[in-house]
Every structure is written in C-alpha cells, then in structure tokens.
Amino acid sequence: MARKRLADRVLFIILAALALLFLFPILLVFMNSFKTKFSIMGSPFTFPNSETFAGLENYAAGIKSAGIGAAFMRSLFITVFSVLILTLLTSMTAWYLVRVKSGVTKTLYNLFIFSMIVPFQMVMYTMTYVVTKIRFNNPVGIIFVYLGFGAGLSVFMLSGFIKSIPLELEEAAEIDGCNPVQKFFQIVFPILKPTAITVTILNAMWIWNDYLLPYLILGTSNKTLPVAIQISMQGAYGSVNWGGFMAMLVLAILPIIVFYLFCQKYIIEGVIAGAVKG
Description:
Blueprint: H1 2-32, H2 37-42, H3 57-66, H4 68-99, H5 103-117, H6 120-133, H7 141-162, H8 167-175, H9 180-191, H10 193-209, H11 212-217, H12 225-232, H13 242-277
C-alpha cells in the first residue's frame, strides 16, 4: 500500500512537471504580449514591469495591421464546415467499409490507412498545382482539400468503434422497416457520438491552427488567421513587430483553447467508450 502511494505521488509529480512544461510556451506568449518590442527582445523570460509594460497597445496595433476580423471569420468558416463535412462523410464511409465485406471495401480501407503515412511534403507541390487547375484555391474549395487530408485518421478511428457496435441492432431496425439511411442516422450515428465528437475536436484543432495548407492554396488574397498574423507582423528588411505578433497569437489560440476546455470531457468519454467496447 505504501509503495502504491509512493508510486502515485511520483507519477503525479512527473505529470505535473510535464503539464508545466507544455503550458510554459503559452504563458511566455501571453506575458510578452503586454511588453514593449525591445523588452521582448532583451528579456523575454521576465514578467512585464512598470518600464516594460505596454498595456493593450500591442493588441490594438495587431488588430489594426493584421485585419484580424476578416481573417478570423474566414478561418471560422473553413474550420466549421470542414469539420462538419469531415465528421459526417467519414462516419458514413467507416460504417460502409465495416459492414460491407468485399475486396473493394478492404482495398479502400487500406488506402485510407495508407494516406495517414504519406508525408504532406511529398504531395504539397502537385496538390497545389491540381487544386489551382480545378479552381479549388478559394475558401470553399479548401474545405474539400481538408476532407481529403483528414479522412484517413477519421475513418480509422470511427471504423474501430463501429466494429464494436452489435450488428443485431441494425438487423432489428431493418426488420422494423428502416432503410440504410434511417439505420445509420437513427441507430449507428447516435451510438457513434463519443468517437464522432473526438474526431470533431481533433480536426477542429488541426484546421484552425493550420498555416501551411491555407498559405499554399489560398495565398495572401484570402488569408486565414495564422497566415494573416505571420504576414502582417513582418516589416521591411526582416523586422518583426514582436509585441503585436505575441498579442495576435494570444487572440488566435484563445478560441481553440476555450473550445478544447469545453469539449475535453467528450474526448475522455470517447476514449473510455472505445476502450470498453473495443
């Protein structure tokens, strides 16, 4: 008993140290967002004082120069609709691949898994060329690009959970007169809720924070929030407005942090449900 308590305390200390390690960069960005540019460069690891405190000047300057309002709404539009389409279509795809046993479905499932291991750098140039040719280089077109890149992991996670759903439930619904669409939306999808929410959260965090894909596809004409911050905070001859940069980073990560804190219980529920049923 004493050994177990000691092991629990050691584990708690290790996890607390890891939590502080991961939270430190966020704290560093937050406290530097209230400091002057030269104090950030000279002493980035100190708290702002009466000499280095810049108030809300960095936030005001950053919002004015970054055009953060339009970029925020564009990022919100892309994230919301990408996540909705991803969750809906991949859940339907996973259900079909699990329930229909054939060589075609097995090949398709393996292709989804294979897409997870292909590095983005291998396809980004050809992808950019193709997307431009088919005129998907706009805020609506990039949603389908995210669907392609996010489908692999989503189908993999959802398929594992669907395998644990008793087939008798669907057979009973079919006897009651349900067609395949009714079976999915009335029986399967409600049971998928924990894993579907987990997939939604993971994809939302990825798409909201993504920089490279919007930069390659949308360029600077339809800037998302990360792209707007990176471009607008750079001045002539390589100078960077570090105060405004830090302030805009705080505003950019704040929504996704609030979203994650609000939804983290659903991630835990999804993991527990998958572990118990799997």
